[in-house]
UniProtKB/TrEMBL annotation:
Start-end of Basic and acidic residues biased regions: 67-82, 292-309
InterPro entries linked: DEAD/DEAH_box_helicase_dom, Helicase_ATP-bd, Helicase_C-like, P-loop_NTPase, RNA_helicase_DEAD_Q_motif
Name this protein carries in UniProt: ATP-dependent RNA helicase
PROSITE patterns: HELICASE_ATP_BIND_1, HELICASE_CTER, Q_MOTIF
Gene encoding the protein: LOC118277479
Organism whose genome encodes this protein: Spodoptera frugiperda (Fall armyworm)
Biased segments, Acidic residues type: 353-362, 371-451
Motif (Q motif): 187-215
Amino acid sequence: MSKKLNNMKWESVALDGFPASMTDKFQGFVGLEECTDYSFDKEGKRSKKNKKQEKLAAKRERKKRKSSESETKEVPSKKVKLDNGFIVESCNNTEPSLANNKQKRNKNKKKKNKNAKNLNNDNNTGETSDDDKENGNTEEVPKKKKSKNKKKKVKETVGTEKVVKKVKQRLGDLPKSTSELTPEDMLTWAEFKLQEPIIKALTELGFKQPTKIQQLTLPAAIHGRRDILGAAETGSGKTLAFGLPILCGILKLKEKAELKGLDVYDIPYRKPALKKKEEPKEKKQKYKRKDRKENKKKIVQEEKVKESSEDGYSSGKESDEEGTKNVTEGSKNVEEEYLEEYDVPVRKRDNSADEGNDSDEENYIHLSDMLDSDDLADSSDDEDTEGADDEDGSGIDDDDDDGGESGDDVESGDEEDSDASGDIDGDGSGDDEDLEEEENEDADEVNEDEQGVGCVKVVDNIEMPGHVSVKTGKPLYALILTPTRELAIQISRHLIAAAKYTGIKVATIVGGMAAVKQERVLRSGPEIVVATPGRLWELIGQGQPHLQQLDSVKFLAIDETDRMIERGHFEELTPLLERLNADEERRAARQNFVFSATLTMVHDLPTHMKGKKVTKHGKIINRKIEKMTPQQKVNRLVRMIGMTEPKVVDITTQNLGTAETLTESRITCALEHKDAYLYYIVKRHPGRTIVFCNSIGSVKRLAQLFTLLKCRPLPLHASMPQRQRIKNLERFRDDPHGVLIATDVAARGLDIPHVEHVIHYQVPRTAENYVHRSGRTARASREGLTILMMDPSEAYLYAKMCRTLNKTSEVPTFPVDSQVLAPIKELMVVARELDALELKKRRAAQAHGWKERAAREMDIIIDDDDLPVKQVNASIDKELKAKRRQLDSLLSRPIYPRGFSFKYPTLNNDTTVFQGSEENALQVMKNALESGQLKKEKRKSKNAPLLQLQKKFKKK
Ligand SMILES: Nc1ncnc2c1ncn2[C@@H]1O[C@H](COP(=O)(O)OP(=O)(O)OP(=O)(O)O)[C@@H](O)[C@H]1O
């Protein structure tokens, strides 16, 4: 209906004899209208003036109509779009269909609520959110009033809708704070002398005070300008522990350059420590003497901090000194309790032997030369322990990126576009195109899947760019390296949030996304680059000008450092570090940050590396391999990265990297029942859950199985396209009952709020992996639960892990209702059968497709009869149909515990699978711990085979 027709006179016409059968199709189609005022369209001849006048008149008319309608409360003459696709205009004198009206109202209501909800999320106003409840920001309002207020609020929010543009939260975005902090609330930060714009951003984020690790590292990093080696539990705020000093340092450098009219390139952030070595020996001896005294650590630290702030590079000598004093005093007590500082001797980098290594023995292998945790794992560990349906046979290690941008193996998920998180630049704008996979570009890259564990990606044709000092006029101040793409994106977003009012730009350079856009961002000269090593090295190799300033960066941070430097994982890291450390003076003037939750953790040796070994030449050697000490591990890091006398802050000594708020538990069961237990947990204890597997194959299998079980799982692994990876993470973040099934690619660093459970579907290969996986829950002082699923064949790995984590007793068992589990096991049998049939069908289709393709290529005509696969398909289809029906019927029925009497079957049509109520898993575990149920178990477990195994293991 054209606009013109709106202004004409309409009359309703009665619909006699309208067939009853059609009524439901025309639901809400309340009448017809006939145009009674015809005229010729003279639009073409009309003058512009006339047109304008007519328009105005029409507008006025519409306004009038609207106001009169609202006064008389008649049915609006607005067009209504029906479900069947018709657009109708309702009459004034006929009652509209109630159903449609209701439907429409509901729709509108939903829309409004949605808008209101979104706006509430954005503005943190209105109804109490989950967050509010958690923070205790709930308000008791009488019910009646509340509904009125609600309406009002909805109206208000809808009114402001045009003004406030809805911003979709992207992966890694920090949620805005619900509490409004005043400058007085932020006084704890003041002692670190952070610049005002940074404090302003922290206030907005609701970060009232620094976390423990921030409290311990910021003074030395900001005032002392020292290198920091930080180890703190997962989710303890390590990102800002290096992020804030970097932002603060950049602002200081910029300010100084502006004040003195200097070129930033020529201002070292700190006095090269090389010169410090030339200091009179007396000073060092003074330290040594003090060292012997009881309070040695703190004094040394204090002296060094003072010394650095006296170096003339601080923005204000006195104030810095003052600040340092305050901070050291302020954090005194905390440090006494937690701070563990190592003496880190600075050694020349060309000295390859590790300290304490008896290098005189030819066949001596030191563990530090084989730091790779997964190299260290038994070769049998690399296989998918289930051995079932591992389609691609990719029982591979899958916990880092950019060691090769692998695969185009998309297995699930729709293809709808997401503009969510391709954003790679500091300004927060992102296009979908950013997420374009670069499968073609990857053609000559080695696929991780094909390589298997222990193989190393060979980086060909990359020449080390010459160490020419490049000045583009837009200095690159800081480089932050991470092992995974998602972590890089997240760190960027955290920094962007903290740098919101500083004008500092942050670029994310990661694989799997369009390099073109990343280059464009780099051309704008961001001060900070957060990157994974692969893509970064690729762009450096291509001569990207902004990155040619790499060797003059003032700050270098390496997150998850222990993972980053593991042998064979990041081949590009070695040349990168060489490049960064090429100029000795610049290296010494650079401030370095090295962080991880497991920085000082050293795991047990795998048996295959111990004992006798027969060499190629038939010689038997008895290998002496010593476990590296934490100090040796730290020394190695210091040497590799080129740090100078770093301050080592390790606050993981109590819980070895896991958060204090984490509740640990375990389920021991047969391998074939693991799926049933997992389904039980997901359904009985719904909540945001991450399920970790040891291989890509396991992730794929579980994702398929749980899709059949209608759990809507979200897979995540390194051979998925980057776009899908981010989309799945965002979906998971947005779904309070989301189930993410992931490899260790999601184990480190990811900060998704309110993850309630972490389930280790398989015992992780190293204790480090256990710590990082478990650390996806119980973050930022919240509580969380981790469940380790273990079958008897994994007892050895479990015992090894417990030993590394210094666990003196077994991880307590998670209580499972066996009555409920029994019917689930039956359900799982059917689901697995269906899964197997689907796999068979896929394989048959693939084989069929292959035969046909081959025939076409060879110009051979094949009869359908010669393709027996099709017949197989027909029979599979039949079976599939039947199985699907069987599973659907099982799933549609609620699960009753075995022995349920059925005397009082429920009348409600609740679709929840469990008839028993859903329970909070953490609470269930806590209750079990308190009720003494687990004490009994402890007594029983004295003779448990697991402990026996552990003893055997110790003897080895
Ligand atoms: N001072 C602070 N006050 C409150 N929350 C904070 C503070 N600093 C950081 N956080 C929040 O704590 C959460 C965890 O921080 P972050 O991701 O830096 O942890 P992490 O120690 O790096 O964890 P992981 O070891 O898993 O990488 C984040 O959501 C972050 O926003």
